[in-house]
Q: What sequence folds into this?
């Protein structure tokens, strides 16, 4: 039995320890905002925070997470009021939207380390794939979010 | 035309179904068990092919050769072999028609197999392996070099001859381990450096070269001695057992040619035999006096601080940290740590370069695929970037290993390019 | 070029004033020196109250007691439900199409709610929603008149209801902002109070719809209605469907397309917990598990099915490349266009001739949401949750698969995690229905990324050969083109290939607007066992690369500037010239960029829209290529939502850039080799150029598409820049396969 805290709620999970966190979140707990994209930590659609760090949940086995604190897109804010979410809305970033939970979670963690990011910082650290090609707006939204967080 | 294609999860051969189902660690058939221990199937099969029907391309310094059909098909396999014929091929490297086998067949190691085990293996291959009618492929060694008579001389010089004899001063378990490692397991084929004539430099623990680590097929088969940084010095016996049973443990995950060994061989050994192998390996002395690895948190702090100085640090954060962690500790036993990992600390970075370039093939332990695999970065990162990120991880967290150059990456990129005609062919498994 | 450019350009930082934005700041579109419209995309407004979309916009009732008709329901609280009969997969038609309705309906946009129209209702009500597909960038083009009529008709019925209530002539009443008013008496009444009366009114004649010059809402940028749902994980995609008692399926399909399942031994699953069943399909085997998709996938990985793959199992890419090349260079082909006498012009004395062969590989769609479907089969009713680009077609196929009548089938058209053409054929849905019938439980089937990539219906492989001739003055006198390419229609078993030609194959080649007196275009359709289908930009995805590269070759051979060379051949097409001039002006074409940098130009028309692009690139001494900026100009005639249109241009460029730089699916032993993003890489932020979108709209009767055209010229623009910088002509994609080191 593994205990994890997801968005402030304790969950006891009884499943094979090699099961990736992604499938525990989606299929067992029922939080489907975190998406399956590649299964090999390449695309970032499944990005969540584990103990405060952005991680790709498709590649983190539940067996090593006993006691961990998980934050998913559903737990970021109750009303889409997080500065990153506001910036995303203001820049009209999402198209199909499937990768955006991961993009947002990656950005939230990134801005903790890079409160004043340059384009080069963004390019090097936000490596999530967006197949619709929203990068132009995404980059702008990250800058805007950084500004909003300081305001 | 009806062609049947064996399909594994990723179209890459993961395990080869041996004739009989394998439910327990101790099959009724002792010969099958020994065939597992010898991992015969890894070389004598091709991905998608029938077990033991041969056809695997293997490079030698003289040119490529192909493994042969060792199913009991009388025309294309070894169906006409008597026990003596089989024995001569297995332990002395001489085929039934009298030609000498190239030492890609590890007969110098197999020479140590006992008479009893040879008989059991023979019975298994003759009675339990389904015959497959499949012609052997012609070797690609140039005609001038293909005379096999010098091999007789080679054999005279480089094979020790004789079955394994228990060493006094060691207990039964140690001796059993030595027998498996030196004989059927033929661990030295990869882990012992080879000499001028492609011979293994040593065939038992009496030499420090034995299992001292070697680069083969663009992989570094690590040093199996108890060196503290670059060997197995920090692994306990239980860690070793874990690794051989599951393909990974808290410190590492099998990769490269070792994947084949785990997929087809070591997890099928009995607990007693796996223990014995671990006991034997733990008895090998360290070759060098190395200071024990000490974790250094500075790298983690630099990564968390957001503006690390080395060029590879940013690449690490973007490409590697989501599995291996900003703290370099991975998620054992599934994703190996980078901090303090003997493979990362090793002198030769070949395995690291190869892994980043080409990723890893799936580990399948007794039919169950490992959930995680290392993706390849061949297309995403250029030579300099791979050199940077490897230099970063080799220097980070107190690892203290040497830098990697773009030229080293470029060389392996070329020799492991699957589309190149100069691609490295696996020599040994 | 122009002294004052009253534009806010994408990419140029306006962040410092971005916080205090206003609607006025959002789009400052003005005439540029070239006469085009430049759209600033620096900032965006949020309407104080945006209209709403439910996270599951398909879960409402197919009809409402407040229905005015199948399209519109107005509730007593004034909220307006507009039913949207296409598929939202990121292309923005869930915003653009209701905008068209709202233009005529004169309703308050913030009171609008959008839901998916029910394909089942369409079946039951005599195909009321018509074509429900989202393909070929046609949603606006093919729905606009219909939806304007829907809005206008509803408006007139509301007015008629008010007029009847007030006993005044309808002609004296006006509708605006969800209120009908009567100026003479000063009376006003909200739509919500009129809806039930309006629902009873039948108009004697349908009202006329507005001409574009009278639009007041269409053409004003609106934020996408689905965005708020896509920043908090609320938007529901098919893969997010959860049903009571639902189980999970993973599937292994014959690795060689077209093969069948020979046998599979279930023994390895004997002792595995949580496995429900193994289901054998004709060409696949599925494992069904109780609690997670992961368990099903792990179970499946233990199986080693055997397949009948036939002769296709020994084919490979080297062979395909040779076959397409041969077909492009020799043998028979159908003639798609033949002006003048190409052969004579090519052999005329004094003519300078050029010959080139362009080649492109198979490409995968790689939508971020892998193929998946959830099916609930109850014997006499079938419910399917699937990301589809054609819900009406999916319904028909589902009914056939299940052996039910169409009215017994409910397709719940969810948000689609990327389509790009792949999801116009829902292979996964057919499999899921077969599995559901076999196990008689609700089931969710998910393809892994590897399944998705290797069992795609790919962008066709092609080889396109060119011959060109220039006279002594460098003027083009002949252009001969032959394409050898996979037939999409044949692969999809659509029996519409006529005389050996299909429109997608020759798109942009046969109808190229360059005035060259002797022009001949030939088409050789040639398929392998690899299935092919529509892929964003379709034929233009390879044809624009080929023809715009070759035109560039001709320009250089003629010693002319590529812009001037093209412009001189476009006498009959002022719209092309306007696009060309706009992109050239805004990119400062021809200026010096310094060492290691260069520009390239390309222009193409497809799906009714002309797009011109200038690529600015940098190549390092080590040969690393970086596309720094794409300046883009587009003419779709009119545009409904300029913001959504610009987003589609940007997305199209990135999609095409991924293909140009990296895209390649190769085949070995009949099996597509690439399986995931490590072997089929994508452009990410680090490779994403700045993109400036400029409008060069020519109005008139033209209504062009948005989804497909944006990326059409991208590969050629980049490759032409590479040539300008290095003298290396890239004649096969991807660029990744070419060594650019030491050349810049």
A:
């Amino acid at each position: 039995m593994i205990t994890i805290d997801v968005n402030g709620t304790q969950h006891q999970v009884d499943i094979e320890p090699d099961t990736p966190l992604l499938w525990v979140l989606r299929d067992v707990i029922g939080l489907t905002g975190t998406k399956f994209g590649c299964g090999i930590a390449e695309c970032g659609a499944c990005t969540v925070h584990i103990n405060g760090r952005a991680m790709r949940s498709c590649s983190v086995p539940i067996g090593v997470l006993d006691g961990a604190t998980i934050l998913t897109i559903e737990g970021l804010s109750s009303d889409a009021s997080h500065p990153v979410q506001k910036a995303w809305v203001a820049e009209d970033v999402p198209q199909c939207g499937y990768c955006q939970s991961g993009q947002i979670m990656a950005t939230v963690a990134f801005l903790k380390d890079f409160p004043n990011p340059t384009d080069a910082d963004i390019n090097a650290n936000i490596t999530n794939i967006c197949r619709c090609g929203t990068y132009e707006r995404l980059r702008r939204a990250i800058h805007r979010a950084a500004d909003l967080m300081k305001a | 035309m009806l062609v049947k294609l064996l399909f594994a999860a990723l179209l890459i051969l993961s395990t080869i179904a041996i004739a009989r189902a394998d439910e327990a660690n101790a099959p009724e058939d002792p010969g099958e068990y020994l065939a597992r221990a010898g991992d015969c199937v890894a070389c004598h099969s091709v991905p998608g092919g029938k077990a033991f029907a041969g056809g695997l391309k293997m490079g030698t310094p003289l040119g490529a050769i192909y493994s042969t059909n060792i199913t009991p098909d009388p025309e294309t396999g070894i169906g006409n072999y008597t026990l003596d014929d089989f024995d001569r091929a297995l332990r002395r490297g001489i085929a039934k028609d009298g030609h000498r086998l190239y030492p890609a067949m590890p007969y110098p190691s197999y020479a140590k197999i006992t008479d009893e085990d040879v008989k059991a293996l023979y019975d298994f291959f003759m009675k339990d392996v389904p015959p497959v009618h499949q012609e052997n492929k012609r070797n690609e060694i140039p005609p001038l070099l293909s005379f096999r008579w010098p091999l007789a001389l080679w054999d005279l010089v480089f094979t020790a001859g004789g079955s394994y004899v228990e060493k006094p001063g060691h207990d039964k378990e140690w001796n059993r381990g030595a027998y498996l490692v030196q004989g059927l397991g033929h661990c030295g084929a990869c882990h012992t450096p080879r000499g001028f004539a492609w011979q293994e430099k040593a065939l038992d623990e009496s030499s420090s070269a034995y299992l001292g680590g070697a680069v083969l097929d663009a992989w570094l088969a690590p040093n199996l001695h108890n060196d503290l940084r670059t060997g197995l010095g920090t692994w306990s016996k239980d860690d070793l057992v874990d690794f051989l049973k599951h393909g990974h443990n808290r410190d590492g995950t099998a990769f490269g040619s070792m994947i084949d060994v785990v997929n087809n061989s070591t997890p099928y050994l009995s607990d007693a035999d796996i223990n014995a192998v671990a006991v034997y390996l733990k008895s090998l002395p360290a070759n060098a006096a190395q200071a024990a690895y000490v974790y250094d948190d500075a790298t983690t702090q630099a990564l968390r601080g957001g503006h690390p100085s080395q060029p590879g640090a940013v690449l690490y954060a973007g490409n590697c940290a989501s599995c291996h962690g900003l703290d370099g500790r991975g998620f054992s036993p599934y994703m190996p740590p980078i901090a303090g990992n003997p493979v990362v600390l090793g002198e030769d970075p070949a395995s690291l370069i190869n892994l980043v370039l080409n990723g890893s093939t799936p580990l399948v332990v007794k039919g169950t695929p490992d959930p995680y695999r290392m993706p390849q970065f061949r297309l995403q990162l250029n030579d300099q970037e791979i050199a940077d990120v490897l230099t970063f991880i080799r220097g980070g967290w107190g690892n203290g290993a040497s830098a990697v150059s773009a030229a080293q990456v470029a060389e392996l990129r070329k020799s492991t390019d699957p589309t190149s005609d100069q691609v490295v062919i696996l020599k040994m498994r | 070029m122009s002294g004052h450019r009253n534009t806010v350009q994408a990419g140029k930082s306006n962040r410092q004033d971005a916080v205090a934005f206003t609607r006025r700041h959002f789009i400052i579109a003005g005439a540029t020196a070239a006469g085009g419209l430049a759209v600033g995309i620096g900032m965006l407004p949020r309407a104080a109250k945006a209209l709403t979309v439910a996270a599951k916009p398909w879960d409402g009732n197919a009809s409402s007691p407040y229905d005015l008709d199948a399209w519109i329901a107005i509730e007593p609280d004034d909220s307006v439900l507009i039913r949207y009969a296409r598929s939202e997969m990121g292309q923005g038609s869930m915003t653009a199409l209701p905008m068209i309705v709202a233009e005529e309906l004169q309703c308050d946009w913030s009171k609008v709610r959008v839901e998916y129209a029910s394909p089942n209702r369409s079946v039951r009500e005599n195909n009321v929603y018509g074509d429900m597909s989202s393909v070929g960038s046609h949603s606006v083009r093919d729905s606009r008149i219909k939806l304007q009529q829907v809005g206008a008709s509803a408006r007139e019925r509301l007015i008629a209801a008010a007029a009847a209530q007030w006993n005044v002539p309808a002609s004296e009443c006006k509708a605006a902002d969800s209120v009908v008013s009567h100026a003479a008496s000063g009376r006003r009444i909200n739509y919500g109070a009129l809806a039930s009366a309006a629902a009873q009114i039948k108009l004697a004649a349908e009202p006329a719809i507005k001409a574009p010059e009278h639009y007041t809402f269409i053409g004003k940028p609106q934020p996408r209605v689905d965005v708020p749902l896509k920043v908090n994980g609320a938007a529901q995609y098919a893969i997010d469907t959860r049903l009571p008692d639902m189980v999970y399926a993973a599937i292994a399909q014959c690795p060689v397309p077209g093969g069948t399942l020979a046998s599979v031994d279930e023994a390895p699953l004997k002792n595995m917990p949580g496995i429900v069943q193994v289901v054998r399909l004709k060409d696949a085997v599925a494992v069904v598990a109780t609690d997670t998709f992961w368990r099903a996938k792990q179970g499946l990985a233990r199986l080693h099915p055997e397949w009948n793959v036939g002769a296709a199992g020994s084919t490979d890419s080297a062979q395909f490349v040779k076959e397409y090349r041969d077909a492009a260079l020799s043998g028979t082909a159908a003639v798609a266009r033949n002006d003048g006498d190409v052969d004579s012009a090519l052999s005329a004395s004094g003519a300078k001739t050029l010959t080139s062969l362009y080649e492109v590989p198979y490409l995968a769609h790689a939508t971020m949401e892998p193929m998946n479907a959830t099916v609930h089969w109850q014997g006499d009713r079938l419910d399917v949750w699937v990301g589809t680009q054609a819900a009406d077609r999916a319904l028909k196929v589902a009914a056939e698969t299940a052996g039910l009548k169409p009215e017994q089938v409910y397709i719940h058209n969810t948000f689609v995690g990327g389509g790009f053409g792949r999801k116009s054929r829902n292979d996964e849905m057919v499999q899921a229905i077969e599995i559901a019938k076999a196990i008689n439980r609700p089931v969710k089937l998910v393809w892994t990324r590897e399944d998705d990539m290797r069992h795609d219906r790919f962008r066709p492989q092609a080889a396109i050969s060119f011959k060109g001739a220039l006279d002594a003055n460098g003027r083009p006198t002949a252009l001969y083109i032959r394409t050898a390419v996979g037939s999409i229609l044949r692969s999809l078993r659509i029996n519409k290939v006529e005389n050996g030609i299909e429109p997608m194959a020759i798109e942009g080649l046969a109808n190229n607007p360059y005035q060259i007196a002797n022009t001949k275009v030939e088409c050789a359709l040639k398929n392998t066992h690899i299935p092919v289908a529509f892929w964003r930009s379709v034929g233009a995805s390879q044809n624009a690369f080929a023809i715009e590269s070759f035109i560039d070759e001709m320009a250089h051979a003629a010693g002319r500037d590529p812009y001037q060379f093209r412009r001189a051949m476009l006498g009959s097409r002022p719209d092309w010239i306007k696009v060309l001039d706009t992109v050239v002006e805004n990119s400062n074409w021809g200026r010096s960029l310094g060492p290691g940098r260069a520009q390239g130009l390309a222009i193409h028309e497809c799906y009714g829209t002309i797009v011109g692009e200038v690529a600015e690139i940098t190549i390092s001494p080590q040969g690393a290529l970086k596309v720094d900026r794409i300046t883009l100009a587009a003419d779709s005639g009119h545009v409904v939502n300029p913001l959504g249109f610009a987003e589609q241009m940007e997305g199209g460029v990135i999609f095409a850039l991924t293909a140009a730089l990296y895209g390649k699916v190769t085949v070995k032993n009949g099996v597509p080799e690439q399986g995931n993003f490590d072997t089929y890489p994508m452009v990410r932020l680090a490779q994403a150029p700045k993109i400036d979108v400029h409008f060069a709209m020519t109005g008139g009767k033209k209504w062009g598409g948005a989804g497909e055209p944006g990326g059409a010229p991208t590969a050629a623009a980049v490759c032409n820049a590479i040539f300008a910088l290095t003298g290396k002509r890239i004649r096969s994609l991807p660029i990744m396969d070419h060594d650019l080191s030491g050349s810049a």
User: Anything to note?
Assistant: Confidence is low (pLDDT under 50) at residues 1-50 of chain C.
